[in-house]
Here is the input.
Amino acid sequence: MAIGWVVAAAVLSGLVSAVVLDVLVFAGAREHVITGMALLAFAFGWGLLAVGSTRFTDQPQRWAIVPCAAMALTGAAVLVQAHSNRVMQSLGWVWPPLLLALTIWMVVQARSGLRSWTRRGFLYPVFAVLVIMAIGGAFETVQERSDRATYAMPGRLIDVGGHGLHIRCTGSGSPTVVLEPGLGEMSSAYGLIAPAVARESRVCVYDRAGRGWSESATGAQRSGQAATELHALLTRAGVPGPYVLAGHSFGGLYVLAFAARYPDQVAGLVLIDSTPPDAFDSLPTYPTFYSGFRRVSALGPSFARFGGMRLINLTSYGDFPEPARSEARANSATARTARSARDELAVARTLMRDAAALRSLGDRPLFVLTAGSGQEKGWSAAQDRLARLSSNSVHVTARGATHQSLLQDRSDAPTTSRSILAVVHSVRDSSPLTSPRGTP
Here is the structure.
């Protein structure tokens, strides 16, 4: 058998095995499983090269045993020992230089012992990717440490039972507005909204566990846990209720769950293109979207270790003022944030059940703001159903606005701010809720 066929089969077998394991067999798994299984798959490919070339060709590539053993042992260790983000962060100082040294050694071995077009066609591209991963991993590790030193926590860290949550309150006046970020977002995601609301009332932004300046929680989120933690945070931070809660996207589920659990602490709600609690049943494409998104989100933490998420978010949050823009970009680049987003998706059905427990707000003001562009089938009808939770509600569709632009675009964010303030004024004046001027 020609050596070229063995090299091609080995490289492709490792790649296909990694894809099958991470995207199909262990789809949606936690980071240590995704990373560990990928390493074992690539170890399998290098093992095939070593064994196949020795048994079936006159060009044995016994050197391939070294990357096979290194990746197999590392993969097994990650599966067993690297469950926490802290361990993976610590490894970030170790694996990049080791991977770079191993790759350089493999290049030397392949150049001296392999006479085939597949050296340039298959192995060199693999080596190039490994070098990029090593350099990207080293840069990401250093940059994350720099970010932690550069972007000091602007608020306070409050213990809510085993871990601390970050909260920052600005402005004055009642009722206090509490802003709930969407999936994978931090408090700085309200960089355009919070300052506008703070000019007329007190506003508090916070980070859920595992992102921003908040500490990570242990274990999977239990039913009612998010609402309980937010209640404990506000109580221990000395922020009196009742509150106007505003949630964007997945954050809408959190504010609905809070209202169901602590109805006396809710003066009004604002749902900003909120995920509906019945999404799996009412949106025809949502189950497929969720399945695919969960698979992709599980790859996010591993991808972030190489600096991939930082590249993707280089121009994100471009309309935000500083330091919110840099804070949001730095946060979105980390594997820690990607892990948190993946964990939230894993308990989506639990969160939706918690949100669905809210049957009625009575006559408390409820503003439902919907993006007018990029809606999936059934989205508008689901937003109408949310508006029926209160007899004192307004549902506005912002023409031309997208799901993200309602928070991140200077032209659309004022619509969101005005919607929140409309609820504030309704609560403050005990008046019927009306659509604010300037709302498209």
